[in-house]
Specification:
It contains six helices and seven strands, in the order βαββαβααβαβαβ. The chain has helices at 12-27, 51-70, 81-86, 89-93, 110-114, 164-167, and strands at 2-8, 30-32, 41-46, 75-80, 99-101, 152-153, 172-173. The strands form two sheets. Strands 2-1-3-4-5 form a five-stranded parallel sheet, sandwiched between helices. The protein has a two-stranded antiparallel ribbon with strand order 6-7.
Length: 177
């Protein structure tokens, strides 16, 4: 079975997205590992709100580059808000990145991208994101007695101080039924 090292930075939405990523990739034959050295795939689910979280991601990418030199078959990817905000600039800065996927519904395209399917040359802008609530594999929950349940995602307001509409897209919510 392929091994996945999944690292999450950020808010509860990122934690919920990581559970979805783990569930989607479990359907593809991946099991979670705590050890980056034994991973076939390392995914960092990123935050774009706090600069310190971004700096930690950049530092980890340097560490993981050394692992990829030792194991060229290893794949490294960034998901989440930082990947959405920075897009292909991240590939310019870190050319060994194999995958970039924005948050929310974009994570369901990860298996397709891993199989070599067409990945967008630039991540879709918020209006182009896939619908938030799609039929998907069951998330891999970290707890037996609690779960993140997203009711809505994104925001339609464009406050000067906030990046959410640009990273998580326009407001989308579950259908009432």
């Amino acid at each position: 079975m392929a091994k996945l090292k999944l690292i999450t930075f950020g808010c509860q939405a990122n934690e919920a997205d990581s559970e979805k990523i783990a569930g989607v990739l479990a359907q593809e034959g991946f099991e979670l590992t705590e050890t980056a050295e034994e991973a076939d795939l390392i995914l960092i689910n990123t935050c774009s709100i706090r600069e310190k979280a971004e700096q930690k991601v950049y530092s980890l990418l340097g560490t993981f580059q050394r692992l990829k030199v030792q194991n060229p078959r290893m794949k490294i990817g960034l998901c989440g808000c930082l990947a959405q905000r920075e897009g292909t600039r991240l590939k310019d800065r870190f050319p060994y990145l194999d995958l970039l996927a924005g948050p929310g519904a974009m994570i369901y395209r990860i298996p397709e991208m891993l199989r070599g399917g067409p990945a967008p040359p630039v991540l879709p802008r918020p209006k182009e994101l896939l619908p938030l609530y799609v039929d998907s594999p069951r998330p891999r929950r970290e707890s037996l007695f609690k779960a993140w349940v997203s009711i809505m995602e994104g925001c339609n307001y464009l406050c000067t101080f906030c990046i959410v509409p640009y990273t998580r897209g326009q407001e989308r919510s579950r259908p009432p039924e």
